[in-house]
Amino acid sequence: MKNSEGRVSSEKTGRMLTTDARNARGAGGRLDPEVERWFATAGAAFPSSRSSIIPMLQAAQTALGYLPRDAMRAIARHLVVPPALVEGVASFYSQFRFNKPGLHRVTVCTGTACYVRGSGKLLDDLQTDLKIESGETTDDGAVSLESVSCFGACALAPVVVLDDKVLRQQTSESMKKVIHNLSSGSSKDSSRGGECK
Which member of 45, 110, 166, 170 has the lowest number of beta carbons within 10 Å of its beta carbon? Predict the structure, then answer.
């Protein structure tokens, strides 16, 4: 039960728990400094209600780029719920990432239209070239590789999204050039078909 001072009492024990940044650290030790900054500036502003779980997870991921375990612990402590509840909600939705993303995000569409036009082979070739699986980041932290079921841009198949740029009609060869440009720091797009505007 929450009182007007932002404190929560357990109905079983009557113990008072504060719902501010001090409580986010709790007995489990200090959190990562970046997570503490996020919680102090944005996280603590959310109401201490279970309905805040998804909005808090979204806010943490937007600010941090992914959901580190410390962010989920801070959310759980703020909402006075078990960390497993927050982690369970986060793991249910595909929008949440649990690993720090690379500098660049390469997302391959594996929907039907893209797949019949070669996105399966494209994804396999990217995994081989980058030496990572879908959902992983290269050792140097430069590229994260992901796949999605559909972007809804079937006429442009096969589609790859590089960061926020839609690249249409990609092939293994065109993506090799794109990846090479990423690793060399080149900003010009050498993908076949180019960027979709």
Answer: 45
| CATH 1.10.10 boundaries in the chain | 7-92
Would residue 14 be called left, alpha or beta, if left means φ above 0 and alpha means ψ between -120 and 50 degrees? Answer: left
Distance of alpha carbon 78 from alpha carbon 154, whole angstroms: 43
Residues 101 and 90 sit within 8 Å (Cβ to Cβ): no
The domain defined by 104-196 folds into Glutaredoxin (3.40.30)
pLDDT above 80 (res 14): no
Q: β-strands 143-148, 104-109: how paired?
A: parallel
Q: Which CATH architecture has domain 7-92?
A: Orthogonal Bundle (1.10)
Q: What pLDDT does residue 24 have?
A: 40
3-state secondary structure of 54: helix
